[in-house]
Structures are given as structure tokens and as C-alpha cells.
Amino acid sequence: RFRYDGPVVQSVTPANGPRVGGLVLTIHGKNFGGSDDDPAVEIGNQPCASVTWVSDTSLLCTAPPGVGEVPVHVTVASRPAVAVPLYEYDACFNHTVVDNTQRTTWR
């Protein structure tokens, strides 16, 4: 009987990015198979906008929008990855705009 080892995810770079998504992530690991093995990546519960097989040890994924710290799930040829690293969406900062154009004249 022939047995294939399932995919193993070792890291994701960068480890964080914007809430709006769109950042291309590199998924590092092993046993990602070949381009015809149909790799799939989900960030949280959302599929990546696109997934590109680079090699048996590397995938590229365009992150979907999201919030918080979420797991990265990789599936190759219907086999889920053994390790599930985390990806963190950056906190949303509220910016305050101050109008400095008003001047006070002292008399």
C-alpha cells in the first residue's frame, strides 16, 4: 500500500496584515504536493482570494478581509494540514483630524 504524508504548515509571512485583506501571504511548510493537487488556503473561515502553488514547501495566498487573530488552514488533495498557525489582522485605529486653520486674534 502506498501512503502520502499530509501537508504540514510551519509558518506564514507576514504574520499580520490589514483588515481589508489583499496582502499576499507566503505559507511555508512541506508536503504541498504539485500544482495539480489543488491546494486551498483559508484565513479564519474565509478562503483566500487566490492561491498559487510555488513548490512542495511554499504557497502564496491573497488574504481575505477579516478581524482578530485567526487560524490558517491549508488543504492539499483533500488532506488538511497537520499544523495550523495563526494570522493576525491589524487593529483598526481611529484617527482624529484637527482643523488648525482657525486663528485667534488678540487685541
Offer a few descriptive terms.
107 residues, mainly beta, 0% helix, 10 strands, six-stranded mixed sheet
Overall mean pLDDT stands at: 87
Q: Which strand-content bin applies to the residues?
A: 35-45%
Order of helices and strands: EEEEEEEEEE
* Low-pLDDT residue spans: none
What is the terminal-to-terminal distance? 95 Å
Structural class: mainly beta
Helix content: under 10%
Account of the 3D structure:
It contains no helices and ten strands. With 107 residues, it is mainly β. A hairpin with a 2-residue loop joins strand 6 (51-55) and strand 7. The termini are far apart. The mean pLDDT is 87.
What is the compact description of this entry?
It contains no helices and 10 strands. It has strands at 8-13, 16-17, 24-30, 40-43, 46-47, 51-55, 58-62, 69-76, 79-80, 86-89.
Sequence-ordered SSE layout with sheet pairings:
Layout: E1 8-13, E2 16-17, E3 24-30, E4 40-43, E5 46-47, E6 51-55, E7 58-62, E8 69-76, E9 79-80, E10 86-89
Parallel strand pairs: 2-10
Antiparallel strand pairs: 1-3, 3-7, 4-5, 4-8, 6-7, 8-9, 8-10
